[in-house]
TrEMBL record:
Alphabetized Pfam families for the sequence: SET
Species of the source: Glycine max (Soybean)
Domain of life (superkingdom): Eukaryota
GO biological process: methylation
Record-linked Gene3D superfamilies: Rubisco LSMT, substrate-binding domain, set domain protein methyltransferase, domain 1
Keywords recorded for this protein, A-Z: Methyltransferase, S-adenosyl-L-methionine, Transferase
Protein name: SET domain-containing protein
Keyword Nucleotide-binding among UniProt keywords: no
Record-linked InterPro entries: Rubisco_LSMT_subst-bd_sf, SET_dom, SET_dom_sf, SETD3_SETD6_MTase
GO molecular function annotation: protein-lysine N-methyltransferase activity
């Protein structure tokens, strides 16, 4: 399935509400909204229902409240660093095991756990108040309330065309459709369980699971109550699985005063990941990165030879958490902090490929192969002995980055001319956050390349 799911510490994939990148910002927003917050009796009912179902206490440190940012969890008493603030037993988490045996037997092995868990949601929704999970299912976002890019219109997606998120969105929608076709026959055979569930319903359910589920040794699971936690990009608090205690728990990473909103980190995610899988972005995301491709020109007379080297010496990026793969000439660029440093943030493999592409004779390529054999086996990882060639290789990279910078600059300028309202204004801001973050990364890499080339002249 086309969604990110971790298995180690159970990372979280979507939030019901606005997220914050620093504790300072969270505190400022929280206190400015304090007078607007209203607490709902239904929130208290939810926790009581969950604790009755679990036959144990879920949390004595937290309560659910509705702030201007959505449903959230707040400290009900003083919380100190190291306190366990939440425990949700495995037995009250929803997994693919909740599928009825007669339904599970109809699902092929090619269907992943996200699609299976989405099927559980569709069945429980069909049951309505007759579902044992109704208090939880009824709290999930409805269709039209999510801003993940798979729900964007074609015109909205055009806002982010320069970014890799554009193509990743298309790939994700294609994968969801593939999964739907694989289980569509079950919907038709079990109309009583699924009602009139459509592809649109299935995509919504898959997005809910892909954005909310946590992975652990217990498998992929939806964890009620933990859904209400907001995100802080610098928090060290995460959802952890304790197999000995058979529960998921959270340990506070700092002190909280009574009434203060409690925050955790979903993961060290870029805005590209956040908008694709969670449906939100952060204005200045310290984890931003840019996915680029560096192609061998079709008119290059040594193209075939270089392509062979590319597949022989360059390791393709691992499949992402969605199970989608990237081509071997795809690279993730992070912010380069210093113009005069070692260029950390620019992959060494990208610079190596630039050196290969700068070769104009087969002898130059043979020299690189011989050098790799005499060292650590990696191709073109050392600066070229011919300084002019080394500069040329990095100027090729610089030219690519200048082009990418121009594309994003034009896209950002075009956003300024758009007058949107409602959900469209939200998505416009998301597009701006994404493109401005990528622009910042590309400019930092470009500045380093300029300085590197200048230092060699």
């Amino acid at each position: 399935m086309p969604f990110r799911v971790r298995t180690a510490t159970a990372s979280r994939w979507w939030s019901l509400h606005t997220v914050f990148n620093t504790h300072c910002l969270c505190r400022n927003l929280y206190y400015s909204a304090l007078s607007k917050r209203q607490f709902s009796g239904n929130c208290d009912d939810f926790l009581q229902w969950l604790e009755r179902k679990a036959a144990c206490s879920i949390s004595s440190s937290l309560f659910i409240g509705n702030s201007s940012y959505g449903r959230s969890l707040f400290a009900s008493k003083i919380i100190q660093t190291g306190d366990c603030i939440l425990k949700v037993p495995y037995r009250v988490q929803i997994t693919a095991d909740n599928l009825l045996p007669e339904i599970r037997s109809l699902i092929g092995e090619e269907v992943g756990n996200i699609a299976k868990l989405a099927t559980v949601i569709l069945i429980e929704k069909k049951l309505g108040q007759g579902s044992e999970w109704y208090p939880y299912i009824s709290c999930l976002p409805q269709q039209g309330e999510l801003h993940n890019t798979v729900f964007w219109t074609e015109s909205e997606l055009e806002m982010i065309r320069p970014s890799s998120v554009y193509q990743e969105t298309i790939d994700q929608k294609s994968q969801i459709e593939k999964d739907f076709l694989a289980i569509k026959h079950i919907f038709e055979c079990s109309h009583q369980s699924f009602g009139d569930s459509t592809y649109k319903d299935f995509m919504h359910a898959c997005t809910l699971v892909g954005s909310r589920a946590w992975g652990s040794t217990n498998g992929l699971a939806l964890i009620p109550f933990a859904d209400f936690l907001n995100h802080d990009g610098v928090s060290e608090a995460i959802v952890m699985s304790d197999d000995d205690k058979q529960c998921s728990e959270i340990i506070a990473d700092r002190d909280y005063a009574p009434g203060e909103q409690v925050l955790i980190r979903y993961g060290k995610f870029s805005n590209a990941t956040l908008m694709l899988d969670f449906g939100f972005t952060i204005p200045y995301n310290i984890y931003d990165q840019v996915q680029i491709q560096f192609d061998i020109p079709k008119h290059d007379p040594l193209r075939d030879m270089k392509l062979e080297l590319l597949h022989q010496y360059f390791i393709p990026p691992p499949e992402d958490m969605k199970g989608l793969s990237h081509p071997v000439n795809s690279f993730s660029i992070k912010e380069v902090k210093s113009d005069s440093g070692k260029g950390k943030g620019l992959p060494q493999s990208l610079r190596a490929l630039a050196r290969v592409l700068s070769c104009t004779t087969s002898q130059e390529i043979d020299n690189l192969i011989a050098e790799a054999a005499q060292t650590d086996g990696r191709l073109a990882r050392r600066p070229l002995q011919d300084i002019s060639k080394e500069i040329q290789a990095h100027m090729m990279l610089l030219s690519l980055f200048i082009q990418l910078i121009e594309e994003r600059s034009v896209a950002i300028m075009s956003l300024d001319s758009l007058s949107l309202c409602g959900r469209f204004s939200v998505r416009k801001l998301m597009a701006q956050d994404l493109l401005q973050g990528e622009l910042r990364i590309l400019k930092s890499a470009s500045a380093w390349l300029e300085n590197y080339c200048f230092s060699m002249t």
